[in-house]
Each structure stands twice: as structure tokens, then as C-alpha cells.
Amino acid sequence: MLYPDGEIAQMLSGIASGATYHVFYGNTLRIPANCNLKVIILKFAPQLQTIKVSGTNNVLHALHVHESAMRRIPTSLRHLQGLQTLLLKKGVLRTFSLENLEGIRNLTTVGLRFNMLRRLEPSKDSQLIMPIEDLDLSYNQLEFVDMEFFIPFKRLQRLQLNYNQIKQIIATNSFVLPLLHYMDLDNNELKQLNVSKWNVLKLDVLMLDNNNLSQLPIGIDRFTSLLSLYLSHNQLTTLDLRELEPLQKLRRLQVFNNQLHTVQPNCQALQNNICQRVSLPTLNHLDLHDNKLTSIDFNSWDLPELRMLDLSTNQLKRVLNLNKKFLKLKELLMHHNDIYCLVRNGTKKDYNMVFDVQAATDNTTCLSNSSFPHPYEQGVTCCND
Q1: What average pLDDT does the structure give for the chain?
Q2: For the whole model, what pTM was predicted?
Q3: What InterPro entries does UniProt report for this protein, alphabetically (predicted)?
Q4: How far is CA 120 from the centre of its chain?
């Protein structure tokens, strides 16, 4: 144990570079200023209420504390000037204040997952800059997030806020996170998200699965470096690809398990025959399965790199202008729809994998008004109207 005044820590630091406690029974962890341990790990510390560092310590690089009774991050951690990784997991932390970590110049990784965080306290110091690159606040109890809290995080690259109870995220003023490239907001309770004041020019992954969103994030066109956008298990009823057209680097778009009944642009639905085209030149993965689509028209879609398209488990009866549209398409999933195809003897049959059957290679005439040259094999597939 490292109490009452850290003598065991001092003793261990003379013979080892790290100390791991499977069970720590004390209510205070004391770390001497002259302790030479580089790593301290407490795997189970149910009575631990605070950590006291007696003076400036430049040696300790990693501090991991699991299942403690601490409600706040101890202020004395600021004396750990060499600290690079701080993990306080499976505890009862209620509040996260940056002042308690101020001045730790090399602190790049902070993980506070599986706590009881309900509040993020914005710093009152407008000049504060935090060196943290990877921040994990997942599996907490946050309901409200003010993005002002993250203004000092000028080096932040990864931010995890998934598995909270977030209902609202606000940004009163424009802010910049110049290096942020990954943000996870999965499994929250967001009904709307406005990102119009976010300056996150390097963001390439945004995860919003399992929320209650009824529309695309407002201002999503600002995220011009985005490579992957995840929107599955929400409440979207319409998807307008034209709103995503500024995202010219987008490669993966997942919007499955929503309430989609329309994907725009849909030229077939226009009366004046004027249809605006949409171009997503790098999109190679589009997943729209488990929605309520009854028809989809690819005529105005320019997706030259599309390799995977999942339209399964919808209510599709018609798929228009698919032939030779996506020349690099390798995988097309259409099972569990209302499309019927005719085998060569004219018998109607429901194919779960419509485009995986061997299409006719002769000049078979379709008995229905809808026919599809197979998108990546020879022949014709005949389907119902």
C-alpha cells in the first residue's frame, strides 16, 4: 500500500519502474515528489477518495485507477509534471474540471469512461491550452454539453462522448479544434445537432449512430475532410445527398435502420423534368438497409467509386437507372424487398438476393414493364412494376 506517506512507493521506485495493486485498501494514495516509479496502476480501490502528491514529480508517466470512490479529479495531480496518461475508470466522478489538470505539459491521454459524470466545467482561463490528444468520456451520465468546454483542447485528435445521455450540444460562439479527426457521439439521445459554429477542418470520422436525429446535422457541409459518416438507428425520414455534396472526400455513408422513405435527388418524382445532379466522387460504401424506401432513382447520382450498395430490407418495388451506373460496384444487396423476378420459363419467383441470381443471357422478353440489365453480370433481370 502507498500510505501513510508513500514510503512503499519510494521503496518500490528503487527496484522497479512500475507498481500494480490488484486491490488498494486505503482512502488516500500518496505519491512522493522523489518517487521514481513510471507507472502506477490500481485495479480496484473501492475506498480511495483522493490522491496527494507531495511535490513536483517529473518521473511518473502513467496513472491508472479503477473502481475508486473519488468524486472529483484531485487538484494535486498538477504536480505530476511528467504524466502522459491518466485513466480513472469505473468510478463515481461527477464533475470534470480542467483546472485540476492545468500545467501538466505532456498529458496526451485522459480516459474517464464508466464514471458518473454529469457536468463538464468550462475553464475561466481564456488563455488555457490543454495538451490532451485523446479524450474518452464515454459511458457516463452527461445530458448537456457546452462545446465551450473543449476550446482549450487545441491538440485534441480523438473525442469519445458515446454512451452518455446527451440530449443537447450547444456552441454559443464559434470555436476551433484544429486537429480533431475522430468524434464519437453514438448511443445518446440527440434529436437535433447544429454544427454550424464548429471549426473542425480535419474531422474525418463522425459517429452518430443510435440517437433520435430526424435530420442531418445542421451545417454538416462544413466538414469537408469527412471520410466516414455514421447515422444508423436514428429517425431520419428523408436523405438528401445534395446536402452532403460539399463532402468531396466522403467514402462511407451508413444510414441504415432509420425511417427513410425518400432519397434525394429523385428525378422520377419531379414534374418539370429539371433534376439537379449530385456528385460524391469518392463514396465507395453506401448502406441504406432497414428503411421504408419503396422506390429509388439513380439517374442523377454520380458516384464513380461506389463498390458496395445495401438496399436490403426496404419496401422497394422499383429500382431505376441502375444499369451501368456504378461501374466499380462489387456488392449489391437487395434481399427482403418487394421486387419479384421472372425465371426463364416465366414462373414468378421472389428472389431474396435479386441481383445474385444468374440473369438470362439471351433476348428473353420481360413480361412486366420493369427490367434491369444486370449491374455487373451479363444478361437481363425481369422484375414487377
Answers
A1: 86
A2: 0.86
A3: Leu-rich_rpt (IPR001611), Leu-rich_rpt_typical-subtyp (IPR003591), LRR_dom_sf (IPR032675)
A4: 20
